[in-house]
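FW: tagging you since you asked about this chain on Friday. Here's the raw sequence from the shared folder, copied in full. Didn't touch anything.
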Amino acid sequence: MPNAELMPIGDFARRTGLTPSALRFYADSGLLPPAEVDPVTGYRYYRADQVARASGLRRLREIAMPLATAEAVLDAEPGEAARLIDAHVAKALADAEAVRRKAAVIKSSLTGLPSLPVAALRGPVLADAIEQVLTATAHDPGMPVLGGLRMEATPEAVTLTATDRYRLATRTLVPAEPATARWAATVDGDELRTALTHIRRSPLLRIEATPHAIRLYGAGRADRHCRLLTAVFPDHRLMLASLPEVTTRATVVKDPLLRALEELPGERGTLRVTRQGLRLQPADGPGPGVPLPARVTGPGLRISFELITLYPALSTAVGPDVLLDLRGPDRPVTIRSADRGDLTTLAMPVRPGHSTCRSGPATPPAGPARPLHLTGQSGRFA
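HL: got it, structure written out here
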């Protein structure tokens, strides 16, 4: 008769999350043998101290770890176990990337149509531009196109654009060779990120388009494919064309402003813009703020931002100085390099707060951020 401290396979399965059939398989493979087997009935019994190993085995199998590797992890010291898990994850990611590349090649060949030459660009320049613009993407399950990069090519220029609805980044590049046709599509942002090393190491990178993907290739390097997204990209051109006139312009040294944002308490900050310069202070209280020398033209104003919106828009700007084109406390601000204007970012401020009490704080709390007024084929992305 089994020991009273032992539990039958059904109870053990419920405690560990493994099915009885899986427990039998692991027992037969020698990975998790039962503590006792009834010689007459064949019933299997387990000890309470086997629960941890069984639960660990279940978690390892949930990440598709082979049995031999799982056994090594379970029997290893913590440091070695972590190394084995990292190695398994790295292999799984490499295998998934290889599958993705092969699938993109297969999809590109489904139509039987020849690929369309889009542009030829300097690889390092294109890689830097992609990294800068992709900071404005977002992973939104309800709107996956926000994770993509819009690529538009003409004989004169290649323009990259991305938006998360609160920021919009765009950069224009001059092709190394004039394109022969106009083309536009939205490329999967994650797949472009995985291709960045390939792009950066190609002195001259050629881009060709198929109905489902773009093909990236350079001399002496294997081709890379990045899939195209079919959803309609927000109509950023209409939004840019409808921006109000700039009322205030400020030129500020980038690094001190970034440092002030890094040290800012809270998640929002307010820029007080006057003819004497800029002052950054917390958005939820007056505070002394941090003075920032700047050249300012136009009337003064106060404008508030989420840190996660303003900081990346500033940090990707090219050069030591940034130019802020301000249109009001509730209008998009344009951020661009004071030296080079080929990278432009629009950032949406948070909604100004309104104090109903005269004895309230000097700086009223800011309301929630509003998205950019971007339109798509079927309505506003707002």
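FW: The radius of gyration is 29 Å.
HL: agreed, and The chain has eleven helices and 22 strands.
FW: great, closing this out.
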